Amino acid sequence: MRPEVKAQLDSALRKNDFWKLFLRFLLYIVFPACCFLIYLTIDPSSIKGSDVIGVSINRSALLHDEGHTNYLYIRVEGIDRVIRVSLPRKVATKVGAKVMLRKLEKPSSKKARYKFLKYVD
User: Fold this and answer.
1) pLDDT in tens, 65-100
2) CA 59 – CA 94 distance, rounded (Å)
3) Which residues of 30-60 are buried (b: 16+ CB within 10 A; e: fewer)?
4) pTM of whole model > 0.90?
5) Rg for the chain (alpha carbons), in Å?
6) Contact of 14 with 21, CB cutoff 8 Å
7) Phi/psi at 84 (5° precision)
8) Separation of alpha carbons 70 and 68, rounded Å
């Protein structure tokens, strides 16, 4: 085999080996590391939930292409701000009624999310 042809073939093989090695590195090292980091940030087992009761003080609706979303503004004792919670589609809005909410919070962050559960009679 001629030396220049052999050199071309060797360089082509080296380039091909580099990309194979690089793809293996991504597959075996980078991808699992990214999956682990995403799991740490989302980790559903670290979310703590508790039920709180508040009083609805106002309502609003947001119109969009699929219809509208109803929101209740709720005041909960012990919390300085008013909480906005979206209502399920089949639940009527009642201003001045007691409402049970689920408070979802992660220990790593100071923010809490609230989810509407039901009206308390």
Assistant:
1) 888 889 999 999 988 899 999 998 888 888 999 999
2) 8
3) eeeeeeeeeeeeeeeeeeeeeebebebeeee
4) no
5) 28
6) no
7) -105, 125
8) 7
